[in-house]
């Protein structure tokens, strides 16, 4: 076969379609998942013919890109569609807007549909597990483009990705123990692979939010990139201390400013504009690197590293699914409903001290128990 015959080969032969899904799980109107192909960009800014990126975008900005049941299906479909597309070099997993990549499951849906309905939540968790599996099994590299806060379940699906490039405005952390759940959708499995056991422990249980620079420092993301512009020039996130310093004998980096410095930084952020061009340039740089590697050797290498993540994830995802079903009848009901009712009550958490006191007195879970620990409406 000569070169001209080889170039005509695809046009002369039928190519089988290995995609499981069409476009039925994607949309354009929030809440939804948006799926689109974009060309790979070379270092000179030119599109590379025949080479694309698949963008899987969580589109629910009004609720900080929290994923509904239908959106979970969209992520599963997006990962499989990217896997089966011969033109796709890498999958870019991101969110709409500049506030959030994802804040996890949709708390309104959790509170109003799944709480006190554990069996239904079990079906939902089967989909959630398939979403994490879909990311870990995608046959293209998955880059998490962190356009804003990556919290709770958003942190977990982000950790399942292969690499993360983040806006330096983003914050990272868990919310489960504060809001009625536990970070058993991946964080308990993945965080010890990124940081020390004690750092992973504190991140999981404290619900403390860490900056993108701190995440880069502990090795949890590849790079934090400035996205704020003042007078046409990029500046680093003014709310974060981005120079290393010594505190109590330890080197500290990426901590949030406090007091007057925090107030000054907040004022700067109000006048600045958000521009993701540097963030996207970093994503393009990684994708172009992938484009210039043998694709099967690339995926063998990635799957070899993913296997370590998958080992721990596969050990725990099914027992965790069953625990979450049971938990939806108790603490999850309280946590999700407290968060969902915060506009009416002014508080997004229960009275934890009262809750512990009632448990100490062996009080049964009843309607009266729940009412005793939930914040009353503000007008009462």
* CATH architecture designation of the largest domain: Alpha-Beta Complex
Number of strands: 15
CATH superfamily heading of the largest domain = 2-enoyl-CoA Hydratase, Chain A, domain 1
Beta-strand content: 15-25%
What structural class should be given to the helix and strand makeup?
alpha/beta
Helix % is 40-55%
- Biggest sheet, spatial arrangement of strands: 1-2-3-5-7-10
Separation of the first and last Cα atoms = 83 Å
Count of DSSP-assigned helices: 16
What's the assembly state of these chains?
Answer: single chain
Could you name the CATH class of the largest domain?
Alpha Beta
Give a verbal description of the structure.
- The relative contact order is 0.11.
- By secondary structure, the chain is of the alpha/beta class.
- The longest helix has 33 residues, at 295-327.
- The chain is globular.
- A hairpin with a 2-residue loop joins strand 11 (228-230) and strand 12.
- Helices cover 47% and strands 18% of the residues.
- The protein folds into three domains: 17-227 and 276-327, 2-enoyl-CoA Hydratase, Chain A, domain 1 (Alpha-Beta Complex); 231-274, no CATH class; 345-380, no CATH class.
- It is built from 16 helices and 15 strands.
- The model has no long low-confidence stretch (mean pLDDT 93).
């Amino acid at each position: 076969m000569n070169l001209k015959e080889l170039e005509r080969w695809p046009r002369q032969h039928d190519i089988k379609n290995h995609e499981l899904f069409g476009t039925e799980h994607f949309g354009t109107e929030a809440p939804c998942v948006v799926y689109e192909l974009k060309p790979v960009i070379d270092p000179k800014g030119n599109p590379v013919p025949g080479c694309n990126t698949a963008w899987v975008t969580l589109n629910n900005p009004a609720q900080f890109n929290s994923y509904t049941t239908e959106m979970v299906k969209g992520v599963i479909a997006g990962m499989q569609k990217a896997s089966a597309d011969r033109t796709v070099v890498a999958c870019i997993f991101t969110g709409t807007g500049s506030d959030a990549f994802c804040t996890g499951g949709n708390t309104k849906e959790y509170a109003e549909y799944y709480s006190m309905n554990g069996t239904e939540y079990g079906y939902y968790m089967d989909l959630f597990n398939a979403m994490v599996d879909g990311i870990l099994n995608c046959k293209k590299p998955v880059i998490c483009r962190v356009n804003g806060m990556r919290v709770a379940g958003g942190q977990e699906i982000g950790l399942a990705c292969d690499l993360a490039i983040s806006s330096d405005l983003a914050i990272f952390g868990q919310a489960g123990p504060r809001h009625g759940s536990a970070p058993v959708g991946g964080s308990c499995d993945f965080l010890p692979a990124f940081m020390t056991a004690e750092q992973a422990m504190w991140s999981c249980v404290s619900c403390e939010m860490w900056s993108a620079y701190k995440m880069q420092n502990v090795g949890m993301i590849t790079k934090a990139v400035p996205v704020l512009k003042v007078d046409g020039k990029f500046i680093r996130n003014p709310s974060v201390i981005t120079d290393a310093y010594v505190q109590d004998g330890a080197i500290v980096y990426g901590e949030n400013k406090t007091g007057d410095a925090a107030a000054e930084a907040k004022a700067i952020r109000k006048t600045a504009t958000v521009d993701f061009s540097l963030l996207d340039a970093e994503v393009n740089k990684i994708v172009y690197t992938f484009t210039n590697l043998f694709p099967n050797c690339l995926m063998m290498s990635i799957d070899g590293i993913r296997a370590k993540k998958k080992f721990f994830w596969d050990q725990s995802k099914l027992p965790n699914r069953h625990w979450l079903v049971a938990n939806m009848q108790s603490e999850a009901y309280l946590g999700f409903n407290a968060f969902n009712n915060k506009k009416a009550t002014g508080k997004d958490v229960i009275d934890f001290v009262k809750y512990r006191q009632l448990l100490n007195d062996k009080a049964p879970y009843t309607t009266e128990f729940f009412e005793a620990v939930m914040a009353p409406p503000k007008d009462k």
